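Q: Start with the shorter request: fold the first protein.
A: Done. Sequence, then structure:
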Amino acid sequence: MTPVSSHSPPGQSPLRTVQVLGGGNAASSAHVRSLTAGLVARGVRVTVCAPFEADRAYDFSGVGADHVHVPRSSDPVSVAALRAACADADLVHAHGLHASFRTVLALSGRRVRTPLVVTWHDRAHADGARAHLLRVLERRVVKAATVVLGTTSALVDRARLTGARDARLAAVALPGPRRPVEPDDPDRLRPKVRAELGAIGRPLLMAVGSLERHRGYDVLLDAARVWRRLDPVPLVVIAGEGPLRCELQERIEGEGLPVRLIGRRDDIADLLAAADLALLPSRWEARSVLAQEALHARVPLVATDVGGIPELVGDAAELVPAGDARALAASVVRLLGDPERRALLQDKGARQAATWPTEDETVAQVLSVYDELTRPLPLA
């Protein structure tokens, strides 16, 4: 990120902000780290309230922020810790529903109203009574927020329908890699990764994301039954961890599916670079990190036509209906047999990725919101 001059005018103390993070979402955590680095570079004082494990994973302290441990809980102790951290803040910015709800509790009852910005990176997923509870939390949060930023138009619309006074589309960049790029020649690294995964002499299909119901991996396994008839048989590799691991593994073994679960990985860029296709079978996605990484890496993407995906990828990916295993299987079979179509998607993907906001543009947009909300009122 390009260094810039201080954001604070001469003679004025720097803007004091608190970023509140639940720590459970990789996309929002990476965004907060990128945003924090940009704000600090512009002379803004930043405190990040997040669990210890989030700071260890994303090193907010390493980019110049103060870190305050606040557990992923809305119990009185956590709320009190958050209230103390926000005591001298000019503005508080919460990311995600649960972090936002804790922040609303922490800021309630104060004599001086502190501007609260809330970013919705995704939609919370639940069924039954828990789904009703999440809707109640959403209403409480958006009515208390000064501004709600949604990472997709669908999330902005949802915030407005839920009661937000001011909801806007957020510029959110795909943060660059935190670890140094390996000096290896990609043409040498690709066969090495494919050999490790067991994809020698066969197509490699990559999916990345937590092993949860809304990710649609049950549909992906249904589609993999069709691919067993191909010669050579493609290998599907799913990188991620979550509560459905045992259930998915039982299906893979019981049905003899050409699918591998490899758990959580920190080398997603290398895995994608080695893949022939990237797969995103989710029932809902906002601003998918996998979709962005695939297009950046020039890997053809097959994704479901849900949430923010169409808005994000345009015509640079093959889109299929959510929950339709036949459509997913057929789209993959067509692409594997059509190298010209794959090359076209690679070129379209690179052009589409070039239209997305940069990290600098993301920081600039957020700072403009902060300026608007903290600007002193003119004297009468």
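Q: Next, the second protein, separately.
A: Sequence, then structure:
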Amino acid sequence: MIAEHWLATTLAVLWGVAHVTVVVRFLDSQRLSSYAPVTRGDAPPLSVVIPARNEARNIEGCLRSVLASDYPRLEVIVVDDHSEDGTGEIARRIAAEDGRVRVVNAPDLPAGWFGKQWACHTGARAATAALLCFTDADTRHGPPLLSRSVGAMRQRGADLFTVAGHQEALSFWEKVIQPFVFSILLSRYGGLESMSRSTKPLDKIANGQFILMSRSAYEAIGGHAAVKDHVAEDLRLAQLVTARGLQAHMLLARDELRTRMYTSLAEIRRGWGKNVYAAGRDTLPLNAVTARIFPWIFPLPALLPLLPLLCLALGWAGVWGTSALVFGAIAAPVTLLYFAGVYAFSRLNPLWALAYPLAAVTFSWICAEAAWRGSKVEWKGRGYVSRRAT
């Protein structure tokens, strides 16, 4: 009995150490605000490309925020990707007010291309600057975002520079699920600084909401044509940059960039469901055998935080004996405290951590649906097949 309790206690301590390690690695992440902005006289021309398909509710706010940037040499290219909700008309109205804005119509989508990649490719070809910034229409930029990002990119010697901004969560399901999902990404990649320093492509990730690249690096990896059929084009861009021996870096920019990705459970389900499985395959060194097993185990990591609660319940019911009860009694409060920190970092009341079991079950369900669909992806009225990295 003593040996069983000792083992349960040891496992619970290791559980806590694992969570503390994730937190410590993340706290090592550097912030964009610690880098000096590029000076006005030293700022290179910069082209901001905004792919937009049916973004009428977002495009004006995004454009206005980019145009309010303190960056001195700026052109903004909005690529209207066959929108049906007036996105192009809104962008053209703003372009008529500000000569820095151009609106380009995306040509018909070629076979084998994802819509966003085709729009970014179209925008890059229309851009005139040697420095390219790809940003999503649902983002909001703070005035110093571009100038500090260019400064940090130079100081760090990065060829691809990206930031992790603040993810807004306003509705019930956003508040429950979004922080939980990003905590899983955090546990996979750890601190942004360790990820930036890594020379292994599989350790790399980028945030497609904001990617800054030199045109030379962009063309060296083949641009968006090289990731035309990967649902997580941002992830693959960072991996390809690293594979060529170039530098891909990410900093925290919670005060300089904010995004509201989804507004409801239906949008969360469609949004994460479209890329979570197909992108997940590109983060692991799968072979012929593990690729077959992967769909069956893919939903399980989201349920792992529930293990202490399961042990508590089974131990209380006498199914697994007192050792399960000991493990759960120690590990469950540790897990709750960890998620209190996750939700607090997301600028929510830490009491939202009480909802993490609901988040775990819901997100696991989203992952299971995505795994069942496999490579098939649907987004904004279009169907795709996402190719796995080889």
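Q: Describe the second briefly.
A: DSSP finds 14 helices and twelve strands in the chain. The first helix runs from residue 2 to 27.
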